[in-house]
Amino acid sequence: MGRIPPSKDGGNKATVERVRNTHQAIVSRASAFARGHRLNWYKKAYIGNTFKWVLAEKGYDKEFVDNWTRDLLVAVSLSKEKSP
C-alpha cells in the first residue's frame, strides 16, 4: 500500500490521480482473481476482512477503509467465473 499515503487532506491533483489509479488497479486485480477462482461467501468475506484489517493497520481513515473494502467486495461478488 505504498502507492497511497495515509493523508487527512485532499492532496494535490497528482495525489488524487494516484489514488484513483491505485483504486482501479486493486479492484481490477481482485475482479480478475475472482473470475479465475471459485469463491464462496466465506472466501469472499475472508478477502474483504483481510483487506480491511490491513488498511486499518496501515493507518488509513475508517471511512476510506470502509469505502475501499465495499468496492473490493462488490467487484469480487459481481465477477463471474470463467466458463471451462
Can you offer a commentary on this structure?
The protein has about 80 residues and is mainly alpha-helical. It has 3 helices and no strands. α1 packs parallel to α3 and α2 packs antiparallel against α3. The chain is globular. The model has no long low-confidence stretch (mean pLDDT about 85).
Give a quick set of tags describing it.
single chain
Q: Structural class, from helix and strand content?
A: mainly alpha
What is the terminal separation in angstroms? 34 Å
Sequence stretches where pLDDT stays below 50 over 5 or more residues: none
Largest sheet: none
Into how many domains do the coordinates divide?
A: 1
Mean model confidence by pLDDT: 84
Shape: globular
DSSP, total strands: 0
- Percent helix range: 55-70%
SS strand fraction: under 5%
> What is the gyration radius calculated from CA atoms?
14 Å
Counting DSSP H or I runs of 4 or more residues, the number of helices is 3
Order of helices and strands: HHH
Please describe the topology of this protein.
Elements: H1 13-36, H2 41-57, H3 62-78
Helix pairs in contact: 1-3, 2-3
Question: Gist?
Answer:
The protein has 84 residues and is an all-alpha fold.
